[in-house]
Amino acid sequence: MAAITMKNIVKKYGDGFPAVNDVSIDVQDGEFMILVGPSGCGKSTLLRMIVGLEDITDGDMVIGERRVNDLAPRERNLAMVFQNYALYPHLTVFENIAFPLRLAGASNEEVDQKVREASKTLELDEHLERKPGNLSGGQRQRVAMGRAIVRDADAFLFDEPLSNLDAKLRGQMRTEISRLQKRLGITTVYVTHDQTEAMTLGDRVAVLKRGVLQQLASPRELYTNPANLFVAGFIGSPPMNFLPATVTGTSVELPFGTVRLPQEKASLVPEGKLLIAGIRPEHFEDASVVDESKRERGSTFTTKVDVVEWLGNEAYAYIPFEADDAVREQLTQLERDLDGDTMRSQLVVSLDGASRIAEGDEAEIWVDARQMHLFDPESGDNLTIDLERAGRVPAKEDPEAAAAAEHVAEDAAAH
Amino acid sequence: MKQKIGLGIGLAAVLTWCLLPVVWIISLSFKSQEAITNGSLGFLPAEGGRAGWANYADVLQDEQFRRAILNSIGISLIATTLSVILATLAAYAIARLEFKGKKFVLTTALVIAMFPVVSLVGPLFDMWRTIGIYDTWLGLIIPYMSFTLPLAIWTLSAFFREIPWEMEQAAQVDGATSWQAFRKVIVPLAAPGVFTAAILTFFFAWNDFVFGISLTSTESARPIPAALSFFVGPDPFSRPASLLAAGAVVATLPIVAIVLLFQRKIVAGLTSGAVKG
């Protein structure tokens, strides 16, 4: 077991395209680190640089005490689970799991003992003599994990291991991986584009956009204190609502009405300037089901509800609104960054299951303005961030370097 | 039902068309020389014209023929082995590596494969005599390899391209050197391709007549197809048809054996289950 330290890692391809740009991440010994971001953000490239399948253009990769930049994959003593499993189809499950041990020249008894141990952990005992071709997706996944845990690797690396499974199996395997990692206590780096996996599995999560690290924090910190619009929009499902907002004193003018902002947040933002307000769906509520005591702490407004999706324990209400051109442009760009379609400007509101609001109703909605974030529309930075509880934000640590990295990434994207 | 009858008739027609000459040669090989000279039209030997295994015994007792069989087996096996090994390495490089002149290698290989064999015989005859490998095994192995390598390289590189990169990367992460990954993962996965290439190469070498007859002068290297044409028997004006037929049958057997042996290795879909698909 070992810590993995990445210092100012850069990856440029032959044509000069910067896939990873000045990324520094320290993975503690035994930590479960998630690399997350939309496709093309460089997360897989970063993982492949850790394991040695991709050359490092610049920066230092340190595993344990060793700088491994120039070591071959087999000298790094890491175990990796590939997205498509990459099992050896000509070998039985037993021999697949035993493969790393055989290469290391282990004795037959040792191989047998370790493979049986791994297969017991992963409940593969009755499949040991079968070929991978005859196994189901979930079983193949477990064989791939068996091959990783059978030897004493310094760290586990997962490259989107669950993306090929169906939704139900994905949930099961997710808990399985989490349990296994806790039990073995081994340093793990896990790449995914799925924010649910990132939130549920990780001790800490690194959010990447176009090869630049945006924020490195615990799931809770990411959720409550996103560093910028990108992180705020990426983490959370349904995503955070973004609305045009103008602040005057402690009141914020939103498309639906004016809400009061706590003094400590209001003092952080410029007055009279057009900003983007970010409010999560669950910070809205049907005013009629909110307790009197709680009601005091927020503001209410009345609006027409377009669509309601009732899920039993909760309901989602959709409320369309008109956005300013400047704000809309920024939001369209954000959608592009997040790999999404251009969505219509609408508010998603999570209501209590007991709410009786129906489609087409004029409803009174309560909003908890204390939870609101305000973003600068030009830079996308979160102006109301609580840096104490936001983990690491490279843009705040070294603004110049971060800006330079962003600039390179934007240049490359423009071409 | 009607369809089945139609299918049966069709199959029978195709089988007759393909196999009749073979069956006829087998039939000839069991008739005596006199019976053939006097005209024996029936499929089964007429009464008194039956030779039994006598023709085979005669053929196998012939020193020249035995040498020819040995030459053919030796030359074909060596050419096949070398050609497949070289082609495997070359095809792997072509499938996996980006290097300058890759296109050139592939096109050149194709051009060589299309080169008319006959046009090379003259120059090779002169060269081999000068170098001193005329009428030796080596003198035949070299042209056989150069004509079969292109086909083998093309077949194998197609197979290698089908094998996902991840297989090799997984092996390297598991602790394999590049060579170990190649030998323990890539080659077993490409086995159907390797055996296909081997069969094709062996066919070419075994069936070749032009090189066999032009680049040899004695039985020290003469392969079977050439040897059969020298097989005249005691009377040069009446060719021993029954002996030739027996010789032809004997010459075909190794090919059948090799195909049956290799066919079992050519299992389609061996790679299924490697990756999610």
Automatic annotation (TrEMBL), chain A:
InterPro entries linked to this entry: AAA+_ATPase, ABC_transporter-like_ATP-bd, ABC_transporter-like_CS, ABC_transpr_MalK-like, ABC_transpr_MalK/UgpC-like, Mo/tungstate-bd_C_term_dom, NA-bd_OB-fold, OB_MalK-like
Domain ABC transporter: 4-235
Molecular functions (GO terms): ATP binding
Keywords: ATP-binding, Cell membrane, Membrane, Nucleotide-binding, Translocase, Transport
PROSITE patterns found in the cross-reference section: ABC_TRANSPORTER_1, ABC_TRANSPORTER_2
Name of the protein described by the UniProt record: Sn-glycerol-3-phosphate ABC transporter ATP-binding protein UgpC
PANTHER family: MALTODEXTRIN IMPORT ATP-BINDING PROTEIN MSMX (PTHR43875), TREHALOSE IMPORT ATP-BINDING PROTEIN SUGC (PTHR43875:SF15)
Native organism: Nocardioides deserti
The keyword Lyase is assigned to this record: no
Keyword check for Ribonucleoprotein: no
UniProtKB/TrEMBL annotation, chain B:
InterPro entries: BP-dep_ABC_trans_perm, MetI-like, MetI-like_sf
Membrane spanning stretches: 7-30, 68-92, 104-125, 137-160, 185-206, 241-262
Presence of the UniProt keyword Transmembrane in the record: yes
Record-linked Gene3D superfamilies: MetI-like (1.10.3720.10)
Pfam families reported for this sequence: BPD_transp_1 (PF00528)
Compartments (UniProt record): Cell membrane
Keywords from the named record: Cell membrane, Membrane, Transmembrane, Transmembrane helix, Transport
The keyword Transferase belongs to this UniProt entry's keyword annotation: no
Membrane topology: Multi-pass membrane protein
Domain of life: Bacteria
Chain ranges of the ABC transmembrane type-1 domain: 69-262
Family the entry assigns: Belongs to the binding-protein-dependent transport system permease family.
Protein name according to UniProt: Carbohydrate ABC transporter permease
Organism lineage: Bacteria, Bacillati, Actinomycetota, Actinomycetes, Propionibacteriales
